[in-house]
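Narrative of activities, Objective 1.

The group set out to show that a structural description can be obtained from nothing but a protein's sequence at a throughput compatible with the screening campaign. Below is one input-output pair from the validation batch, recorded exactly as produced.
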Amino acid sequence: MERSDQELVRASRRGDRDAFRELVERYERKVVSIAVGMVHNREDAVEIAQETFVKAYENLVRFKGESSFYTWLYRIVVNRAIDFQRRERRHPTVGLEDWSGGEGYEELLKEERLTDPYQQAQAREVGERVSAAIDELTPDHKAVILLREVEGLSYDEISRVMQCSKGTVMSRLHYARKKLQRKLKDCL
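Output recorded for this entry:
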């Protein structure tokens, strides 16, 4: 029987490293996906994910359980990614496959059943333009777009992750979407 996050956190606090390893395995893929979405570099994202889990382990005693472990962990990865961007001040443009959880264009095209080479080229171009447009967003706008549209978090969950009000989340999403619409108006 699978243990809940709360049970694993309690066991981890008591020194059960296997319990924390289970939490890492449960959320590793999602944490890396969010980091890739924000920094656009898989190697940097893996490093941020590792830092996230180290920070989470070191601060388990501070986790009050007012939000879910998942939300608390996402707050850490988003903050680590924003700190990384400020530190590095670089934003390489990469393809859609780098921030979509590892699926390459070929998998995306198979799923969409795009067999016509023209449709494939068009889908690739749209993916590259979307990626470039997201890359131009501020770190806060990029974070809310990824948390909402890629990870599917609710406004309340994003509010807890970003440590801001629900109204601020809604405002950031509104402005981020408007910016994306302007950048991508000829694709829509």
